[in-house]
Amino acid sequence: MKAYQPCHEPFVRYCSALAYGKMDVQDLMQDVLLGAFQRFEQIRKKDELLHYLIRAAKNRAVSHWRVQRRNEEVSERQMARLKERGASAETLLDAQLLYGAIDKLPADQRDALVLFEVSGLSMAEIAVIHNSTEGAVKVRVSRARAAVRAMMQGRAKPVHAGMLHTLTSFML
Length: 172
Description:
The structure is a single chain. It is built from eight helices and no strands. The protein has helices at 8-19, 25-38, 49-84, 89-103, 107-118, 123-130, 134-151, 163-171. Helix 3 runs antiparallel to helix 4 (89-103) and helix 5 packs across helix 7 (134-151). The relative contact order is 0.09. The protein is an all-alpha fold. It has two domains: 5-65; 85-171, Winged helix-like DNA-binding domain superfamily/Winged helix DNA-binding domain (Arc Repressor Mutant, subunit A, Orthogonal Bundle), CATH 1.10.10.
């Protein structure tokens, strides 16, 4: 903490400017600080901790943006596939909103929901993939469904449990 104290303000300002409008600043900072804390003994020049943190933040942000860009490309291909299969404009909008909500889920919930609802795997199969229990997978899927439903509450058309399955059937 002593080494970090003088770095705090410039690090916060850098991360805020780097992530502005592109990603959550707090997530970026926490990821970088956790990594630095875990590797603190390996950092050779403790007096240059700020330089280390800034490089790490930049690398983390670039990695995040690459993944985000890849996800956007996948979403565009999915939308094109929906159009080819005759989906209405309303269905395309539903799909876009739904996948946007799914992207905001924590990784473990998102993965469990997609494996169950989109890929059609059983809870037992997902438990094996996640090296988890079937009960834990059920909880993840349930929480993911509830979170997506909450994110989509402001829509004129209510979200029903089979919407994800219906939309993905256009894609298969």
